[in-house]
Amino acid sequence: MLDKERILTLANTRMPFGKYQGKSLMALPEEYLLWFQHKGFPEGELGQLMALALALKVEGLDRLLDPLQKTQP
Predict the structure, then answer these.
(1) What number of helices (H) and strands (E) belong to the chain?
(2) What angle do CA 42, 46, 52 make, to 5 degrees?
(3) Which Pfam family is one of this chain's hits (predicted)?
């Protein structure tokens, strides 16, 4: 279920590890998210958010979250 809090969380969550550590989940390349989908998303909220990010990217809706992202100092 999508709610406003979940969308805000997705818009402002950063990748905590790996090649794209520190990047917004919405800034991750679609190919990277597809790789995780094939290998298995991480357990818990991070994996759920990554799956949601992929779903939005596949549908071409990823840019809708841009205004919701907080700027990093």
Answers:
(1) 3, 0
(2) 100
(3) QSregVF_b
